[in-house]
Design brief:
This protein is an alpha+beta fold. The protein has one domain: Nuclear Transport Factor 2, Chain: A, CATH 3.10.450. It is built from three helices and six strands, in the order ααββαββββ. It has a six-stranded mixed β-sheet, with helices on one face. β3 and β4 form a beta hairpin.
């Protein structure tokens, strides 16, 4: 009897999901087209993020309050306060002299934008030692805020392997 209820539940769930998908497909409201103003605003947020790293500004004005960061080899950092604590610890350990985005591709769909990017960075340990340079890549997800501005809501990145020494 338990299996019968489980099967019946799955069938009803599948039918309900199918109806929702069909209703969504027939919805006549399409995402807004990427505008030049949106692309410029998103580029400005990315520029602000790069400046944050170069300046060591742990206030992170480019991030949304509900932001999630996924740094390489670390747990996800959830929320603006956790992100600020993470950044404070990072900036206590290293100083960035370079953080440049060298390639990016942005798609805007309504109030969300997705960006695939790559870049280069140079930073030095604050405790002393040689600067470290590398290249990185990642994904940014931006959300339009209530006031119409854009903020970064998701950030995941990692580093490329170091070039082989000859």
């Amino acid at each position: 009897m338990h299996k019968l209820f489980s099967v019946l539940f799955l069938v009803l769930f599948a039918v309900a999901c199918g109806q929702q998908a069909q209703e969504a497909a027939s919805d006549e409201t399409a995402p807004t087209v990427s505008t030049e103003a949106d692309m410029q605003a998103i580029a400005a947020v990315q520029d602000q993020e790069a400046e944050v790293f170069r300046s060591g500004d742990a206030n992170l004005p480019h991030l949304a309050d509900n932001a999630v960061m996924m740094p390489p080899n670390e747990y996800a950092v959830v929320g603006i306060e956790a992100a600020r604590a993470w950044a404070t610890e990072l900036f206590d350990q290293v100083t960035f002299s370079v953080l440049d985005y060298t390639d990016k591709h942005v798609v805007v769909a309504g109030d969300v934008a997705i960006e695939r990017y790559s870049g280069s960075t140079t930073f030095a340990p604050n405790a002393g030692g040689d600067p470290i340079s590398g290249t990185f890549k990642g994904i940014h997800v931006y959300e339009r805020q209530i006031d119409g501005s854009w903020k970064m809501a998701q950030d995941i990145w990692n580093f490329d392997p170091a070039p082989a020494e000859e």
